[in-house]
């Protein structure tokens, strides 16, 4: 039944909203009228007592009588309220949920109505990355500002931002040089490969972006949620570094345009000799670049809204510049224009532009012309004389400033096709992100690809090849080479390219800090947490500072051609993992993979991934290796020190698929003896405070496993699962914490059962999955079992031994486990002694070998003892055992201990008698209460009768004399005493005790100084009536030994001499 909360507020009946003269109610007649407001379990309070669709109820005082029932409806339609008249419970409409959902009302707080769920989804808003953390951080009573619904469409929200980010400095400053150096065919190949890479990546990105809501964070959010926090953090930081270096590259491009084509007189450093020109130019780039970076960072810090307002202006500059190129190309096709050249030796013909058909008929720009540093730029048909002076562009020659190659040009050009993530980064501002992102991004890529491909053809057709190879336009009076083609004036493209590069730099300095802030707020990289903070409005101040410092490193490089390959690496790595994420999700066919964008295929994603990887090593193999190493280091750091996140990523799904495949392979047959290793099920017991009683069991397990194989740590909680579910979760967390503390890699399992022995039996039967099941059980020795009034502890122990034997599992029981060494306590030189009494499949041979792999036991030598009877040839046994160990490749000292037949000693009889007397006493203690009262009455009656009969008698000696023969018999050892005692004791118990005593004497004599003794564990008796005796036998067998490991094999061979 839902809980009802009453809040009584005095008011007047006529003041109640919704009450009219015609609307009946339940009102009060007294002056102290009041109304009752009900609050449901969901804590919904209504300030209006009677609202539309809900019934009103007022309390009646002592002299009040209800006179009307409420049928209030705001729309005028009479409808009876759900308030029950003559019902003392008074259930409100909100509390009653719905008559049709009465079956589910008790679970409504954890399983809400569908209408509630849909209403919650309808109020969903696209918040920035880490939205949940922001919501949790907000105070409960804080009123949130009404957020505007996103209204941006495909064209304004995705297409134009992508165009602005893709078109950049390379198009204006380097594309002509790329075409002139590589030739039209190879330039088309470079552009086509790079555009294919981004197109395939855009297809994969569209599939991921339409598979659910993608908050701001763009590629980082998509990769981290698809490939997990490790890959997401590594690639996210690489993408951040790429965006930051892109800002540096755009600033360097703007400075190059400023100092070479707009205001050459503004140079601060001027070289007096030709040799220092390059160094002076680099210094100018560093100074002006640092100034520009400072100004841009201040603009971003002041407010992003100014950057967004300028974005449209910068985009207009880009579009106007590109249109001027096409216009100039069309003009040059119908009019032979001349561009005055500076040098006649390098350019014998002053015609820098020719007609399209004439240019391609002569094939002058089709083929590549790669140059080495210092080579003279010249026409192939008109070679220039070789100069003897050092290269300088002040002389009547133009020299190549760097050595060119196809791979170098790929690395320099690739940044001009990046920027395809701009649409996904704005997903929070889009009206329909799942429709706009694929269409806008792919259309932008197709548009830019068409522009690049056509520009290659136009540049090759309209400009002389030797001029194209002039990177800085020295041959055309220091003008921008692409400016010679623009119409109506070269200044159109110079000014347009300057502002477009400034705008692209501002966009990079705006986006990179937000990406770093998103990574920091996800809390997957601990040392980046400080960068998650910012100004009160959420602006990432500290992240902007770090971004500016990293961008300054790029500006100090001061060369556009050296910075471009660096950011190419980071962008290519990001695109590679976007393709990998899409391919992985598609192949795994996870149920949540349902993208709205259906024009994708895993083969396209793999092709894009291969192209990205190939471009990384083609452009610069050493930069590629450095980028991969950086990403790998970040991956491992997050794996070991980062916060654990569960984002439903594809790597988790891949692990699941790989585990399923491996488990099915393991099911094909039982493991071969060569592959056998102990797969442990460690049974732990928790105390009343839910702490592990014997944590050294986990320590021993870690030493035995050394991080290999399967380890399951289990415990049993007695009780009812329905009532003890929370306790089971707490116990599971305790086990996990203890496993982490002891550095045990494995799984934990907690079972709730009515009885401990049943729970252990269920755990032994059901733990593991398929071929990954335990084959060895480790449990502790029941401490102080003799003093325990409750026999359940040792009975559970014996029952577990029986269950493991029935399941054909090996059993390890460390005795005195608290004395075993910890992981930080390596044993000094000593011995691990193995007492091989019966064959158990070789477990006793294998366990010391495994223990000695661990640093704790590494210095211990191994000794193997075996027992020879009278009829055995001990000398031959020792030789055979040494040969066996040689074939097993196990180094150990061998000793055969001869046990002669001897009479049963008096000590054996004494221990047997004590054992049987104790067993009888325990049986009497376990009598029921009624039986115990009857027994006490019988003893009382017997004592009273004895007292009556003994009055006046002098038979004390006779009553005490019963001990005389016993005392004499104790002193009189030998066979006669044995026969006397055989008459009153079970002969099988005597023989077992004799064996335990004799073996214990031999073991203590030989192994009293051993670091660890491994011993065959005898099985329990088939008759449960002798369980107490079995525990006594084991106690006698191990008396006087400091550390003992009782071993019981599982019935199968675990070690072999064959390879």
Indicate the low-confidence ranges by residue numbers. Answer: 1-99, 124-146, 338-354, 949-983
What is the arithmetic mean of pLDDT? 74
Number of strands: 12
Count of discrete alpha- or pi-helical segments spanning 4 or more residues = 33
Question: Strand order within the widest sheet?
Answer: 5-4-3-6-7-12-11-8-9-10
Task: Determine Rg (CA atoms, Å).
Answer: 44 Å
Q: End-to-end distance, in Å?
A: 70 Å
SS strand fraction: 5-15%
Query: For the report, how would you describe the main beta sheet?
Result: 10 strands, mixed
Helix content: 40-55%
> Which word captures the global form?
elongated
Structural class: alpha/beta
Question: What are the SSEs and their pairings?
Answer:
Elements: E1 5-10, E2 34-39, H1 93-96, H2 114-122, H3 131-137, H4 154-166, H5 169-173, H6 175-209, H7 218-262, H8 277-302, H9 304-334, H10 356-362, H11 406-413, H12 422-425, H13 433-462, H14 465-468, H15 490-521, H16 541-557, H17 560-588, H18 602-619, H19 621-641, H20 650-666, E3 680-683, H21 696-705, E4 711-718, H22 721-742, E5 747-753, H23 756-766, E6 776-779, H24 792-806, E7 810-815, E8 831-836, H25 843-851, E9 861-868, H26 874-887, E10 893-898, H27 906-925, H28 929-950, H29 956-960, H30 963-971, H31 974-982, H32 987-1007, E11 1012-1016, H33 1027-1037, E12 1044-1048
Parallel strand pairs: 3-4, 3-6, 4-5, 6-7, 8-9, 8-11, 9-10, 11-12
Antiparallel strand pairs: 1-2, 7-12
Helix pairs in contact: 4-9, 4-13, 6-11, 6-13, 6-17, 6-18, 7-8, 7-15, 7-16, 7-17, 7-19, 8-15, 8-16, 9-13, 9-15, 10-13, 11-17, 11-18, 15-16, 17-18, 17-19, 17-20, 18-19, 23-24, 27-32, 32-33
Organism: Oncorhynchus mykiss (Rainbow trout)
Biased composition (Gly residues): 961-977
Catalytic activity: K(+)(in) + chloride(in) = K(+)(out) + chloride(out)
